[in-house]
Write a structure and sequence with these properties.
The complex is a heterodimer of chains A (about 260) and B (about 350). With about 260 residues, chain A is mostly helical. Helix content of chain A is about 75%, strand content about 0%. The longest helix of chain A has about 35 residues. Chain B is elongated, with a radius of gyration of 25 Å. The chains are: A mainly alpha (about 260), B alpha+beta (about 350).
Amino acid sequence: MRVKTKRILFVYSMLVFLFFYIPMIVLMIFSFNDSKLGTVWTGFTFDWYFKLIHDEQIINALKNSIIVTMITTLIASILGTLAALAIHRYKFFGKQVVNFLFYIPVVIPDIVVGVALLAIYGWLHVTLGVPTVIPGHVVITTSYVMLVVVARLYGFDSSLEEAAKDLGANSWQTFWKVTFPLIFPGVLAGALMAFTISLDEFVIAFFNTGPGSGTLPVLIYSMVRKGVSPEINALSTIMIFFIVIMVLVVGKRMTQTKK
Amino acid sequence: MVQLENVTKQFGNYKAVNELNLNVRAGEFLTLLGPSGCGKTTTLRMIAGFEKPTSGSVKIGEKKVDHVEPYKREANTVFQSYALFPHMTVSENVAFGLKMKKINKQEIAERVKQALKMVQLESYGDRSVKQLSGGQQQRIAIARAIVNNPKVLLLDEPLGALDLKLRKQMQMELKRLQKSLGITFIYVTHDQEEALTMSDRIVVMNEGEIEQTGRPNEIYEKPKTRFVANFIGETNIFKGVVDNLNGNYASLKVAGQHVLIPKSSNLKEAEEVYISVRPENAKISDQQQDNLFVLTGEFKEKVYIGTTTKIVVELNGGMEMIVHESNGKMDGVKKGNPISVSWEPADSVILR
């Protein structure tokens, strides 16, 4: 490549990354800002972080978010993996249709799921709370897990399963000793996607939570309406770090299993 | 040891295996030989239990196994793709079968060590299977199967992915292993040379049916059908009409010329038969030799193939024939020169 082309590509790439990350970097910097206004830098402080951990409302919302996200991830991972195995392994009537149905939650607007779920709860007289968010999240995340695991299964050598059975493993042992360890990186990737989607999902959570049971994104939304406080910047910074660390850990784990 | 009775396997409308009867003796090396799609792998998979016969029954030992799952059969398989578990080490792969049988750890370690020794990879136990070469993976696949002391070892084209030299070496090793272990081997291949070198008996299959069963020399020297003659080694097949049964030999009219063939009891006058003549049995004949019969033709081309030279003769009457001659014999002979060919009547094998 010519030196000039190389230089242009470098500058171009830098601009793209700046476009991606400048807002986040600004947000992180202002989480340490002494000023309450958040637009002018007046001095360095950890105050907002201290305030944050003593804010009961935020801690409560965080707790709700963790509950919703954990349960959603667990259910979506199990359902998605089972669905992927069924789609991969068996030929059955209407398989194409079933396969297609799994793509719908990926493309459907969250607001449709949120409103539809709310309508059902109303019809069934279900009181809204933390648990009522979970079904909506499971609906949108299961498909992601399923699609990722199907991709992992594609190219899976079925003679490995036959070999296990040939060597005396029954179907249950074959699954846990051979199939699952081999598709595990796919399941993990799917679970990670489900986790991040559920954690920052706003629309469904907004429509389907009761008073005092909002998840973190819902709470942040209500706080922002009163103006962006540096406390939210601090909270966002913590979330960014948390997600980045998790992706790094899981990513490392995945490359290790692939080796 | 393994018996198949009227076994048929149908995939939709396609009959992969048709009314197959086969009796595999204890301790023998039996090869299922045939082109791809002849049903040999399907047959093997039915013995292993991965496919259920549409009709008929399979016996291993004295036991009918039609409703026995693969993991309860006393047969182990060496897969074409090796199917080694990539997430386990070499030792863990070999130990898998024993672990499933809940054998105690000490005995497992001992038997794994022995099995690895048998395939000459005793120092490779802790390696990942991905670090092994194709030939080494092949050996591990064999060790993983024989460590279970199966009654029958099923091998599905196990050497297909290896290069020629390694394949030859592994053929010898497999044969040696089979002799020393005394396990019954059922071996599937499409490579006729491999089948001839290794087997005690060969079963030649075509389109889901058995064409011929016999020892390697029987299959090669006395093929019963045109398919077998053609599939095993190089041969010349001629179609002719029996026109004289009065002499010591029967006379066959092939494209206007006469060929003498052995007088088998069931030949009838005016009957149409096929004969097979191996290229190495036919000779380019000189006028001086007193041959029982001679076919005339023209020299077409020659190909040097190492130990001999392959000569293509265009026989008068339009048939082509291949003859293997010693190198140098046809030096100076040009395309179109008249030559004649002959062979011993006993070298003609009558096919139906």
